[in-house]
Amino acid sequence: MQPFNVAIPAPAKLNLFLHIIGQRADGYHQLQTIFQLLDYGDTLEFSSKASGGISLSCDNTSLQGDDNLIIKAAKALQQATGSKLNAHIHLNKVLPMGGGIGGGSSDCATTLLALNQLFGLNLPMQQLLEIGAKLGADVPVFILGKTAWAEGIGEQLTPLPRAEQWYLVLHPNQHVSTVELFKNPDLTRDTPVSTIRPALADTGHNDFEPLVRSIYPTVEHAFQAAQPFGQPRLTGTGSCLFLTMQDEMTARNVLTAIARQHPEFSPFIAKGVCSSPAHKALKALAT
Q: Is 97 annotated as a binding residue?
């Protein structure tokens, strides 16, 4: 193995719509959604070392524990391959935690993809997807590395090429309990099943949105702040919400306006991409 010191992106995602179409006998909810990957996210720096296993650092020291999905991903790879991996990982955290934009899941996927390549483990994509699914429902789409139509509990993925689109994302400083939302009797669980239709990116809805807006005043306030500029929608179970923008210039103008009026919502803009920046970075390393 050659020594390495590389930085690999961990992109965010949006759920352009999110329908709950039923509930399985084991209690898991069946979903339909479009995962839209973005060109914006965290960055993980991987450095080889002679010994000591896997270590993790982050400017936010609360994220350095063994319960971080980055560490769990590295341990899962070691268990699957029987290999001893020695590397230090530094997480440059940009994405909000618990925002519904996949920060932890994307960090996990980038770790699996990068360590698999850097250490020459050569696990096939299918095995990486299976490992990722055990670590989190949103991890597989980042391993696949494609904007995709998703079904099941989010693990049945069909790549869905889309034209480039700009988005503006707002992050209310509010933790939303996904577990409590799924338990809530007012949650819609019987949205009709749809066939794969890219148009649902514009015409679909998020079944969690009415509930989240009614329970969390901070999220409702963010929706009201965004509404003069378009039709905001919740991503995942929140608390982040997003606006679809006509083009980059419009996105930047709206960003300036919202940041001036509501800096507490930490708005940012990002471009939707069909292929993951993590995959592109790893492919460039291999050539």
A: yes
Residue range 203-217, pLDDT digits in tens: 899 999 999 999 999
CA–CA separation, 251 and 258 (whole Å): 11
Domain total of the chain: 1
Whether the Cβ atoms of residue 272 and residue 41 lie closer than 8 Å to each other: no
Helix, coil or strand: residue 150: strand
Q: Where are the alpha helices (DSSP H) in 82-216?
A: 103-118, 125-135, 139-144, 178-183, 200-203, 209-215
CB 157 within 8 A of CB 201: no
Distance CA 146, CA 6 (A): 22
Q: Which domain holds residue 162?
A: 1-287
Cβ proximity of 54 and 87 under 8 Å: yes
Instruction: Cite the active site residues.
Output: 13, 138
Distance CA 60, CA 93 (A): 8
Residue 99: closest CA among 20, 180, 18, 13: 13
Q: How far apart are CA 179 and CA 192, in angstroms?
A: 23
Does the annotation list 103 as a binding residue? yes
105 assigned ligand-binding residue: yes
Going from the C-alpha of 189 to that of each of 34, 96, 207, 213, the distances in angstroms are 18, 27, 8, 17
CATH of the domain at 2: 3.30.230.10
pTM of the model: 0.96
Q: pLDDT, tens digit, for every residue of 255-276?
A: 999 999 999 999 999 999 999 9
